[in-house]
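Attaching the record inline, Q. Sequence:
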Amino acid sequence: MNTISIIGAGIGGLALGNILKQHSYDFTIFEAAPEIKPVGAGIMMAVNAMQVFDRLGLKEKIENAGNKIHGISITDESLKPITKTSIPALEKKYNSCNVAIYRAELQKILADNIGNEHIKLNHSLNKIEKNRNYSLYFENGTQAESEIVFGADGIKSRIRNQILNTGTIRNAGQKCWRGLVTFDLPEQFDQEAIELWGKGKRFGFVKISEKKVYWYALISEKKHKHYLGLSENFKEFHPLVSNIIEATSEECIILNDITDLSPIPSWYSENLCLIGDAAHATTPNMGQGACQAIEDAYIIGRLLEDSKDFNAVFEKFQKIRRKKVDYIVNTSWRIGKISQWEKGNTLRNLFMRLIPDFTNQKLAEKIIRLEM
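Structure, as predicted:
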């Protein structure tokens, strides 16, 4: 039996672990963190990801732990609608809907389903070498040998940097704050995700459980005045925005730069394959980063049904996934630019209001349809 190592217990690595377990493979997941802890506040699992969880028998568990979302709306600063995507027909067709959930809760469900015996925490990969097999050297002083290696270790992937020697991280020039707060949202937002677009800044929020709201705020770097408090930056927005920010305690807010990965020529090498952000990190403007990592895991699982030759699987996997992933990375980058416009917003909003509903539906289906 192959010894299989997955580097990284993020959502992609854990999804892959669940798929390999379903196919009765033995594997170990090595995770740098000392515990699988709450990073990233909330997350939205779109219909494509939920279909994969359905096949793993985890759909209901995830739905119960999160909040079903039936509509995604973009509005202007004063909450006046620009576009709305609701997909009841597609939800019915794919027997799944979007679910907003606390990221740590999702990771716990995925990890519990795999079983702790497969996950080694506090194993931060320092070095990987290709000999007959792969030698993995960890910062805690331990090492491991592995025949097959999956790099699910994110945008700054050491696997990618050391074995494939490739990858340029692009900075979108935007700062992103993410927060989690106990807050009573008006009832109209119970099952809807909202993103407000202003000038060089935007704000999104969604309910992830009975009382918890996940929110994010993006400001173009050149627009962000460091001496202003965050809610001060959004004072021209609907008052709900400042109320949400001010109700959030400091330790429940994280700040990141918005980045992605320029497309790399190959995601695999002999007996080694990258998935998720390590292969094709995207900006978060389509809510598809983690969902695409889950799709990667799903496609690898489907290919393993027909072949036990991992190298053949890796080659096919990239062929199947490449087009969709490049489309998402490029489209998300463009949306990020358009949504952060400083000028011409009234015109932009007008044009977006003119996009017919069926066009939005078609775009939604392109993203949520699984390739196999």
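The longest strand covers residues 169-182. The mean pLDDT is 95.

More tomorrow.
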